[in-house]
Task: inverse folding
C-alpha cells in the first residue's frame, strides 16, 4: 500500500523487485567479503560450494541445445538474407513501414524486431512507443483507405512496406485469424498494383517487402 501511495504513476509496482534483488545481492557480497577476510579454509570451501550451486542453478533445463537450434538457425539466416536484399535496393537511411501494426511494449509479440535486428542502415516504424506521437500517427494512418494510406506513407518519407505474415496471425485471437488473414492478403493484392519492383519474399515465406 505504501508503494501505491508513494509512486502512483508506476504501472507495475512489482518492478520494485529489481531494486530489492539488487540491494540484496550487495548485502550478500558484503557478507561474503567478511567471510573471506577470516582467511579460513572452511570459508573458502563454503564460498566455492555456493559458487558451484549458483552456477548450476542458472544453467536451467532450457538452452540453445534443447530448443531445436537447426530450425532456429535456418529461420535466422532466412531473415538475415531477406533484410540484406532490401538494403541492396534502398538508399541508406530509408524508412520502412511495418505491418501488422503491433503496440509496444507489452504486446507479447516482438516478431517485427527482425528487421531492425538484421539491418545496418535502414529505419523501421516498429517499435513506436505506445501513446506517443509516432504510435498515434501509425494508428490513424492504417485506418485510411489504401490510396490515402500509401499517399500518407510517401509524404512521411517511407520507401516501402514490410509485412510479417506470421505476426499478423499470432497477434490476434484464434477467432479473428480468418479476418486478419483476408486483410493481409487484400493489402498485398493492392500493393501489387503499385509496386515499383518485384516484391522481396523470404525463403520461409513469412516475410514480404513491397517498395512504394
Result:
Amino acid at each position: 500500500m505504501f508503494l501505491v501511495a508513494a509512486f502512483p504513476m508506476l504501472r507495475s509496482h512489482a518492478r520494485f523487485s529489481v531494486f530489492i534483488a539488487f540491494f540484496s545481492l550487495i548485502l550478500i557480497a558484503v557478507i561474503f567479503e567478511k567471510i573471506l577476510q577470516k582467511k579460513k579454509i572452511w570459508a573458502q570451501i563454503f564460498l566455492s560450494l555456493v559458487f558451484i550451486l549458483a552456477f548450476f542453478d542458472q544453467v536451467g533445463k532450457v538452452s540453445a541445445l534443447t530448443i531445436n537450434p537447426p530450425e532456429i538457425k535456418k529461420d535466422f539466416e532466412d531473415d538475415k538474407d531477406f533484410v540484406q536484399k532490401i538494403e541492396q535496393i534502398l538508399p541508406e537511411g530509408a524508412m520502412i513501414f511495418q505491418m501488422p501494426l503491433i503496440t509496444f511494449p507489452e504486446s507479447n509479440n516482438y516478431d517485427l524486431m527482425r528487421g531492425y535486428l538484421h539491418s545496418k542502415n535502414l529505419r523501421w516504424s516498429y517499435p513506436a512507443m505506445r501513446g506517443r506521437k509516432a504510435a498515434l500517427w501509425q494508428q490513424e494512418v492504417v485506418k485510411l483507405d489504401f490510396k490515402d494510406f500509401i499517399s500518407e506513407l510517401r509524404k512521411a518519407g517511407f520507401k516501402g512496406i514490410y509485412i510479417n505474415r506470421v505476426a499478423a496471425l499470432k497477434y490476434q485471437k484464434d477467432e479473428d485469424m480468418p479476418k486478419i488473414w483476408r486483410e493481409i492478403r487484400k493489402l498485398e493484392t493492392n500493393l501489387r498494383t503499385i509496386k515499383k519492383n518485384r516484391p522481396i519474399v523470404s525463403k520461409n515465406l513469412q516475410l514480404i517487402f513491397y517498395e512504394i
About this structure: The longest strand covers residues 158-164. The longest helix spans residues 16-37.
